[in-house]
Amino acid sequence: MHSPQKVQLSPQSPSTPPGTAGGSHNTEWMERAGAHLLQNYKQQPIVLERGEGVYVWDADGRRYLDLLGGIATVALGHCHPEVVAAVKAQADKLWHVSNVFYSEPSIELAEQLSAASGLARAFFCNSGAEANEAQLKLARRVMKDRGTPERFEVLAFENSFHGRTLATVSATGQAKYQKGFEPLMPGFRHLPYGDLEAVRKAVGPQTAAILVEPIQGEGGVRAAPPGFLRGLRELCDAHGLLLLMDEVQTGIGRTGKVFAFQHEGILPDAFSVAKALGNGLPIGAMVCSEALGKSLPVGSHGSTFGGNPLAATAANVVMRKVREPELLASVERKGAHFIRHAQKLQERLGGRITEVRGRGLLMGVELNGEAGPVVNRCRELGLLVNTAGERTVRFAPAYTVTEAQLDEGLRILEQALQT
To answer: Are 262 and 203 members of one domain?
Structure first.
C-alpha cells in the first residue's frame, strides 16, 4: 500500500485536484484508519500530510486554506520556523525527565504565564480537559482547607464545553456530550449563560466556585455579555467563592489579549489554557494565585508528561510572540476585518446567514440551517472550517493569517452557501 511522500509545494502553489492515475491515496489511508482507529470522531474524508503557514496539503497533494487552525490551536501557523527551530534544538538535548526533576523550559514557561496573567503558580498537563480537572480539584481542596467541606458545588453554564473526562463532561452544559455516560459526577449546576441574576439566586451554602468561558466556543462562538464576567467576579468576592475561567479556546492571544478575561479588567482565582499554548504540541496549564496554590501540595496532583521539555519549549516561543503588542493588535484588526466583511456577505445573501459574531480571531457565522453540509462544501472548494453547534461555522485561523486570506475564505464560504 502507498506510503505518502512529502509534497514539495509552496503556500502560493495552486491547488492540485485530488486523485491520481493510481487512485486516491486519501482513500487508501482512510481504509486503514477504518480498520484500526476507534470510530469516535466524525472526521472529514481527507488525510492531511503537510502544513505551512495557513495552508495544508492532503495525501493526494491538494492544498487547502486552513482557517480552523487545529480548532484554535496552531496559533502561529503550521511549522512556524521559530517553533520548529526551537523544538529541533530541544530534541537534540532532552525530551523527557518526569516531574520528579526540574527542567528549564517548564520553569521559563511558568514565569511567562505568571508575568502575562498576574497569577503566581502554574501546573502543567497535556490538554484543556486536564487543565480544567486541575481547577475543579483545586476548588474542592481549597474549600476543605478553609474548613468548609460542605462547599463542593460548581456553578457552570448551559451550552458550555469544558472537556471529555467524566468530571469535565459533567461540568459541560450540553447533553449531547453526556449521553451514555450517566450517572454524571455530582456537584455541578448549569445556569443560563450571561444571566447574572440567575447565578446570584443559585449561590448557596454548598457553592464552592463558578466555572465560565469568556466566549463559549463549542457553544457557537457566543461571547459573555458586557459586564457579566465582572459581575461574576464581584459575586465571588462577596460570597467567598472561587472564579475559575476556562480559557482553553480563548487564551494565548486568540481574542487580541493574552487572556480574554483581560478585556474585562478582572483577575480570576484560577484559569485553564491549552490549545494555542503549544502551537499544536500537546500542552495545557492551570494557573492560579499564590494563596490557592498552597492547597495542592506535594503528592496532591500530577501529570506524567505535563510540562515536558519539548512541549514547553514550543510554548515558550508562542508566549514570547503573543505577548508582543503588535501581534495582539493585528489579531484584533484582522478579526474586525473578518466580522465587517462577513456582515456584508450576510447582507448580500438575504437571510442565509442569521448572525456574525466573535472576538479577535475566533469567529462564528450562524446560518439559517445546518452548518455541516456547508462545512463539507467548503472543504470540497479548498477551505477548512468546522461547526460550533448545529448552525454555526467556526473560523479560528493562525494569527499569521492575512486579510487577503480571510477574504479568500469568505469568498469560498459564499460559494458554498450558493451551491
So the answer is: yes
